[in-house]
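Example A, followed by Example B.
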Amino acid sequence: VTEPHICQKEQCKASNSMTLVHNRCRFADKQIIKLQETPDEIPEGGTPHTVSVLMHDKLVDAGKPGDRVEITGIYRAMSIRIGPSQRTVKSIFKTYIDCLHIKKTDKSRLHIEDSMDTDNTNASKSSEDGHVTDKIDKLKELSKLPDIYDRLTRSLAPNIWELDDVKRGLLCQLFGGNALRLPSGANFRGDINILLVGDPGTSKSQLLQYMHKLSPRGIYTSGRGSSAVGLTAYVAKDPETGETVLESGALVLSDKGVCCIDEFDKMSDNARSMLHEVMEQQTVSIAKAGIIASLNARTSVLACANPSESRYNPRLSVIDNIHLPPTLLSRFDLIYLILDKADEQTDRRLAKHIVSLHFENPEVVEHQVLDLSTLVAYISYSRKYIHPKLSDEAAEELTRGYVAMRQRGNNPGSRKKVITATARQIESLIRLSEALARMRFSEVVLECEM
């Protein structure tokens, strides 16, 4: 608000005597967010640019950190004072966007919350409702197919040859289990964590990139390029007020999504120790610079690593090859070993598959595969509306399986060679069976899904 310099009354005419009466003012919500370019639109050799966006009233908190948005607004310039007490302004102006409307984009990703579209009329809503019911009927028909597991597996990353077991595990991660909150206040996570360990050239990073593009609010980081602070949260100064504020890291930004960590074995021990709390309690606790806070990090961790000697050594045990602490290994629900064994028949089929990606080969048999939009809609609907419960037979089968796993790990001589099962593994089995039931749109976990 520009203050008048001189009082308008004839009797007064005093200069610079006006003060602002705060009690009579009308206040509005204001928020400054930073908008960053998406990685797909960065020019060659360029770094992503950021621009400040000013939000007012209803638009405040419309978008969350990590969302992909489309913003309509007015590009404005603002003068900057040399000092807080001086009225002289600099010759360089600060630019920002005055936001008028925000819309969440990127339909290829899973959407757990509804997108913020405020300008829908009633007529368009009714037509959309009819379209949505048709879509839901089609999805329910798909779920009744006997080969729905195999069809979903083939639809996930179809350009990657075979690895069907790994793809089934990744599908379970996308569907997820039920997060359980007990009346006593105890929480059980529903997110599934997966570790892929394998030889170089077994398309681990390709799977990670595909999951990053598909998952809601996915963040992709590399082990060597990540620090402990960059994964959790760090303290920074607010340029407007000068106060210390918390800036979210990768794990907090991928809340309700999947955090993909490549080169997990090359990560520093300090950064890896930050994952212990996130992978089980699903929170990030911070006590820095007078800020004591606990942030939500309800994320599924998908990590991939190479064995300790870069290639898998068959002479060593699995634990010596993976070379990660048992405290971290027990937090992963699924651990996959992907080995590159030389075999003439499989090598020939793999080579034919890779070559067929570059030109159309009439000999390659096309399997029935769901397109990306159908797969995304199928997973989103299942996560939102299907909440399966364990049946009595399934509960008994789970108990039997867990006891058998414990016996296998307690055999003399096997303790050093086998990753022993802990109480966390029975929770993992429950989560995986719930995810398999969600794939069938079933409200009950049956014994056959154990």
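Example B, a separate protein, is given below in the same form.
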Amino acid sequence: MFCVSEQGSLTIVRRSSTKKSQNHTDTVAGYSSSFADDETLDAVDLDTDNLPAVDTPDACDKAAVRLRCLLRQLQRGEISAELLQKNLHYAARVLEAVFIDETKRLADDDDELSEVQPDAVPPEVREWLASTFTRQLATTRRKSDEKPKFRSVAHAIRAGIFVDRIYRRVSNTALMQFPSDVVRVLKTLDEWSFDVFALNDAASSQPVKYLGYDLLNRYGMIHKFKVPPVTLETFLSRVEEGYCRHKNPYHNNLHAADVAQTVHYMLCQTGLMNWLTDLEIFATLVAAIIHDYEHTGTTNNFHVMSGTETALLYNDRAVLENHHISASFRVMKDDECNILQNLSREEFREFRTLVIDMVLATDMSFHFQQLKNMKNLLTLAEPSVDKSKALSLVLHCCDISHPAKRWDLHHRWTMLLLEEFFRQGDKERELGLPFSPLCDRKNTLVAESQIG
């Protein structure tokens, strides 16, 4: 399902396939069933244009049903910010009409959750608000992350007011601010031939920072894995700096942003994301963002032939790819950049394994073997595709996808890549090494090099 956020951009929403998420959904469904069955809640129209006046008896019932529907959809991540705010505003107005004396007192309270008096909302509501909207740990830990069950409709409506207040505070201050020109370009993020060069201009040469943040937010990864927004921003800025370190014409931050956007297109437009768990999507997006981190602008073969320290460190095997992974995880070990700080030990191991598999598979020397393996799988009567291998192939294809995009984009990428090849050729000439293919700027015929 897709929702449109306040800024008009597409928000990705999906049902998690993990057992934990299923348990959460069951809890919310259990709460709702005492008032309305699941089908009834799913059929609720959350449009706010034709609602009864807030001071009528029907309004309280409408608000109660809508809050139960909102809680259900919030649990699934299937609600846009605009609809959430409109419905919470309506519920707040209903509560003001029914409990006028109480809401006058609440209106004077500070929006901060820490200032809410213990008896203002039930304990289970307070814990849910803390864990969902503030990045703070609940005062009392629940077993297996169980979501609270509200004791009454009044409690749910009262919770709605605090959700509305805290949501406004979080959305206005916690998340990174996007320049208007960046927002305009990102509205085309779901297109195959997304213009990352236009994003680079709008983002003051920081495409990874804004595109990476937007993607992780759209897929709900920031909320799902409790990634502190400031930490994510710092991590993406550090990654961007690493991509720019060697001033490469091609393997730079624009390429990283372009590949990450293409991976998003494949996840979203093909329905691939519905086959994956939240953690697998998180790993896939991060792998795309860091897959060429600190690229030197030279090939693996150059490192091997010239005997660089990197080649010695990784024993001539997938030299650059090993470095991209190792250096990226070193960045994430820094507390200021640790976007994985709230993953469990098991989640971290799975995440790291997936990222390693995917980035190593971008080594072009594995290209034909990957194609052969996938073709062989598809010839089987009942093919069983390993997720890691499938995602590795997806990232690899996205990494070399620009020939399939709009001509002007492909041509620009091609000329940048050739210039990078030529710079390597210049280094090879200085070192007395033979020219690698397409690296001799004086003798390479550009047109004939394009065999596609």
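On Example B: The first helix runs from residue 19 to 32.
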